[in-house]
């Protein structure tokens, strides 16, 4: 199949920049796509970070330390931007104004004001396609849950719980980095870092909280800086958000949690929905399994745990009995983004990447959560504004 080549620039050649390069390098994994990304230029403020790309990605023609030079390159159609949160607003806005499509990393601005500036730039450039990175909903088990929600299987929803839990920060000897500093990561702390992952599916399902009560915790107050000095670890480690959701037909509690310090959880993303007719759960702890509990009045209440087949949004060479993993979800997310760039709304499967509106909604929730923790009150959210 001949493919439309999308010429990408990468701004921010750290952890996530390399994940994109790796996904682009195994594009042949996807069997039925008529498009492919080609990373032609890279930029990082730290010149040594671009070196990995020059050594490992043969399509790279140019490397920059100033992203404005990369944006001036007319051979670039689209940008992946993965930089610290304090740089999102300025760089995303410049990308959009340069007329390049953008897959930007969450949280899409360090705070709500930064996010509003990005939203404004998007409004002023409607021809540019902008999406927010969020890969976990592309796990087949998560896709199965989305299908069950679409099919309205749950009856009256009893409650929803979704979370993203890490454990590496339990180690007090782990060095400080930009993600532990308010100036670079933001006041949201763990919510800004992990929250969009948790909210992507609930927001896609239309489950916007009408109110939020937040409990935020700082567990490790200081960390080594790598030069023998202990420095303040400023950001929230863990956040628990008790939300009340009201839709046209449902009202239920939704508990959202983002934790950097959850002993035993390396990288656990999960969603659990219980309902009077059906309940379901998917967690990346058991990435191959999806659990469901159908219920008819008076009947048995038994969880069914099935191995979810490797049945991804975009078809791949992998057989249905094999396991799906993190890098597969990244590849699927990239397929969805590239599909939109080439086919606009006519993408080949229904699950599109997180939108800037969804990222904006996450900022409304995190800002309310900060206010809730500050005041000790439940904060109502008026979505009409
Ligand atoms: N989707 C996910 O699963 C996921 C996972 C981790 C991080 N992230 C997000 O990705 C983004 C980057 O995180 P990371 O873990 O890759 O961080 P990182 O620290 O590994 O990489 C960030 C890179 O940006 C570079 N940089 C800093 N200032 C720059 C500038 N002015 N111009 C160009 N480059 C600059 C740094 O030198 C560094 O190489 C953040 O928004 C983060 O929230 C997403």
Characteristics of this structure?
Dihydrodipicolinate Reductase, domain 2; nine-stranded mixed sheet; Rossmann fold; globular; 385 residues; 17 strands; six-stranded parallel sheet; 30% helix; binds nicotinamide-adenine-dinucleotide; alpha/beta; GFO_IDH_MocA-like_dom; 2 domains
Please explain how this structure is put together.
By secondary structure, the protein is of the alpha/beta class. The chain has 2 domains: 4-132, 3-Layer(aba) Sandwich (Rossmann fold); 137-315 and 356-375, Dihydrodipicolinate Reductase, domain 2 (2-Layer Sandwich). Helices cover 30% and strands 26% of the residues. It has helices at 15-25, 47-56, 67-71, 88-97, 112-124, 140-150, 182-185, 190-204, 326-343, 356-375; strands at 4-11, 35-43, 62-64, 78-81, 101-104, 130-132, 157-166, 209-217, 222-224, 230-232, 238-246, 251-259, 267-275, 278-283, 289-294, 304-307, 379-380. Helix 4 packs parallel to helix 5 (112-124) and helix 5 (112-124) runs antiparallel to helix 10 (356-375). It is globular and about 65 Å long. The chain binds nicotinamide-adenine-dinucleotide. Nicotinamide-adenine-dinucleotide binds at residues 11-16, 43-46, 49, 67, 82-85, 87, 105-106, 133, 135, 193. GO terms for molecular function: oxidoreductase activity. Keywords: Oxidoreductase.
